[in-house]
Amino acid sequence: MNVNYRKYSPAVSLVIFTAAIFFTMCFGAEISAGFISGVYFCLEALVPSVFPFMIISAFSVKSGVNSIIGRAINPVCRKLLGISGMSAAAVITGILGGYPVAARGIESLFESGAISSAEAKKCSLAAVCAGPGFLIFFVGEKLLNSTEIGIALFSAQAVSVILLLCINRLVFRKRDYINKMIYPKPEKLSQAFIDSVTISSYATIEMCAMVVIFSAVVEATKAPFLGIILEVTNACNLLSKSKEIIPLAFSVGFGGISVHFQIFQILKKIEINKGLFFVYRIIQGLLTMSITYLIIKVCNMSSPVFSSLTGSPVFGLSTSVTGSILLIITGASLIYNIGKGG
After folding, report:
1. Which residues neighbour 180 within 8 Å (Cβ) at sequence distance 6 or greater?
2. SS3 of 295, please?
3. Which letter does DSSP use for residue 186 in this model?
4. pLDDT digit string (tens) for 145-191?
5. Is 10 a member of any domain?
6. Can you tell me the distance from the alpha carbon of 283 to that of 330, in angstroms, rounded to the nearest whole number?
7. What is the pTM of this model?
8. Residue 332 domain-assigned?
9. Per the count of CB atoms within 10 A, which of 48, 102, 152, 220 is most buried?
């Protein structure tokens, strides 16, 4: 029996609208305090750490730097990862720029005809990553007072993206990249700079708006768990206060529902499989968490930040390395079955 869920959308929207009005009227003071806290949080820490890297990443796309990188790495990427050099360049830019940058790069390549719809869908599953500005300078230096942990988190994120691309290579065996490479025409340097600043400004405002909204929700509901699930910046802020590095690493890999929605909006013309995308985010969270744990142990990092990792910690299934590996294998099997069926 097929159920048409769209016909229920107006009713659901009405319920949400009514609840939002009631919620705002009953918790006005808490919401105001959350908004103020979120705005200060963005202005003092988030924007200075993230905005410059977004501009640099956007400029690399607009100025044609990505095309140069794409040409150079195209043969290797096609053989090893099953994607074109241009897609790999977009992924690299995303790793350096942060969550929405790779999605915008993939969307731009698809619109220009440089990559196929199938390749765009495949890359969108893996190209989700927080950049060095966010992880090293914001989470590491500002929240945890440790550049080491920021580097460890960023390294774990970058490795997790590469591993997800390798999973894609094994699961989606069909060659779906365009044989003849199409390189988008670079803009003039002045125009590339102006466009980069404009795009980065919109992306930063969008990100800060999400932070402010969910800060207000967390303040009003007194439910930190919502902030951890819904928005990655709030998750890092909340978990850093208790020095919970391993759950924080999972949150960074998972990205948060607000990041997922932003990517869905950017890639709406590509129509990615949202269920599969969510499975990938859970696997990426587990990968980031496990790799971060291993980096800390192997590098023997010593800092008050890591006090929760010393001694004989007892982690549950979802926060132990062994349990994470089992969950990753389970998720990979699910991805394989989905990819085989589709």
Report:
1. none
2. helix
3. P
4. 889 999 999 999 999 999 999 888 888 766 555 556 666 678 888 99
5. no
6. 9
7. 0.76
8. yes
9. 102
